[in-house]
């Protein structure tokens, strides 16, 4: 039969409703599996005032089972005279048998006493209440609460518990509330309370009589579809980001999608401020036209079917108007002062106690942006100008009210002040990429400023020894490091981490006390390489083979990793990796200085001479490949050495008694190793 459990509560936290429901289902499935109960699909339901599960085709009885209880080893169960020891007798008593009734089992660790107990399966209705309790106790609830005079805790006060197995009421008490057939409907529509006769009636009976759509995904789908239809009536497109759609779906039990408007004069305000107000404060969906311009309309979701929807629409328009007026006031006030004139006010904003103010940071970013721009061929003066103005919008009224608009507001104000589009864009894009998969800065000037902004933070925080520890990273240094690496790699910028770290730290003067700061920054960023490239699917030993050379140019590192990855697809790769391991092992045991040059007069004809000849040819041929970072082409050429190297090891003894010949052969191997080390240490593959 079908099993139903519904927990009726006060309004649950909307941002965690889906997580709670999915966790409840996962926990309960685990309980069913632990009890060895056969069942069909497990469906979860969630609305602001309830969590529910429905288990289809649940067996009415737990299957019989056998429990094997292993006792002490036979050697410890009997004394020298063959009498049972106290350990054996105690174990037997616990099993309800005598020692002579015990079985014996043979394992690879010897012979043991054993007892197989047959356990009869229980009726499912006797098990369900405890299973629900356990599933609820494991929900991810960071701050449980108590209510009334009760001692139980849950995420919100609980009012009803319904547990049905088919048409049978499952007895039990959960959260100090007895299981009953009563279900509560919508607060203002339908029946406030009604009884349910059979588990199969859920959730349809709740929708018909209680005016509650318990199916979470159904509510979300209704909201999405109706919002798109409402936007289409305006020849526009609704901003239906999934996070907001999820939150709104968690706030209503009976969604009614309506469209409202606001005065067009508010469109003079930067759209981002209006959007943050509508989405963040009011949970409204903004609407854009086909060119991506904000329309003076918004879509919202009511939790009630009104006889006069216009009253509901007017009410929401009245609520949003003062909020938009605030945004307008902040922006108009901000326009009265130039962005550059705000720089002195940054002296009142602390970046970090030991590292000074945000103004100090802006001056450092100015210098660092110019340094980076010069290295990558960007406009140095534009980069320095943008760097100087990066943080000025932090002291605007708009950013103070809407922190998410930092950078964005800087762009608007910079353009109003007559700054170039390059400078304005760089001010906005200084924070990109903000998260994994986010887009990168769009121009060379923006790249310079974005790298400088992140690198200054890395240099400062590492400079005072506040390295990230475990999951504690208050200055988001890991994100900053990945951001710098992504820009350099994906834009193929010729930047060196050591050079960048040295210049960034020099701008702090005597404020830093970490003597190993440059090494710490470079090592930290190379550590990000390992995690980042593993996430992209590159083999860990490929990454380690490149890291062994300690490359400090991210774009160069990227070229090497991709070259080694391609090399591994060649049929010669495995053999050459083995040969490099052999060479590495031989050379690691040599304690004397190996000659730089090979003495041709000491070479034997055949495999040894052939290897020396090929190495000489490849050394000359590959020199331009390495200088142009054509590592993949270089490894393809080096793969031609396979037969020659194999022939050398098959027919030539390296460690001969004659010291002169031995050292000459070691020099030959060193030359072979060095050619591969121009790309990576493939002996690690």
Automatic annotation (TrEMBL):
<dbReference type="GO" id="GO:0006420">
    <property type="term" value="P:arginyl-tRNA aminoacylation"/>
</dbReference>
<dbReference type="InterPro" id="IPR015944">
    <property type="entry name" value="Gly-tRNA-synth_bsu"/>
</dbReference>
<keyword id="KW-0648">Protein biosynthesis</keyword>
<dbReference type="Pfam" id="PF05746">
    <property type="entry name" value="DALR_1"/>
</dbReference>
<dbReference type="InterPro" id="IPR006194">
    <property type="entry name" value="Gly-tRNA-synth_heterodimer"/>
</dbReference>
<dbReference type="InterPro" id="IPR008909">
    <property type="entry name" value="DALR_anticod-bd"/>
</dbReference>
<dbReference type="GO" id="GO:0006426">
    <property type="term" value="P:glycyl-tRNA aminoacylation"/>
</dbReference>
<comment type="subunit">
    <text>Tetramer of two alpha and two beta subunits.</text>
</comment>
<protein>
    <recommendedName>
        <fullName>Glycine--tRNA ligase beta subunit</fullName>
        <ecNumber>6.1.1.14</ecNumber>
    </recommendedName>
</protein>
<dbReference type="GO" id="GO:0005829">
    <property type="term" value="C:cytosol"/>
</dbReference>
<feature type="domain" description="DALR anticodon binding">
    <location>
        <begin position="578"/>
        <end position="676"/>
    </location>
</feature>
<dbReference type="GO" id="GO:0004820">
    <property type="term" value="F:glycine-tRNA ligase activity"/>
</dbReference>
<keyword id="KW-0963">Cytoplasm</keyword>
<keyword id="KW-0436">Ligase</keyword>
<keyword id="KW-0547">Nucleotide-binding</keyword>
<dbReference type="GO" id="GO:0004814">
    <property type="term" value="F:arginine-tRNA ligase activity"/>
</dbReference>
<keyword id="KW-0030">Aminoacyl-tRNA synthetase</keyword>
<dbReference type="Pfam" id="PF02092">
    <property type="entry name" value="tRNA_synt_2f"/>
</dbReference>
<keyword id="KW-0067">ATP-binding</keyword>
<comment type="similarity">
    <text>Belongs to the class-II aminoacyl-tRNA synthetase family.</text>
</comment>
<dbReference type="GO" id="GO:0005524">
    <property type="term" value="F:ATP binding"/>
</dbReference>
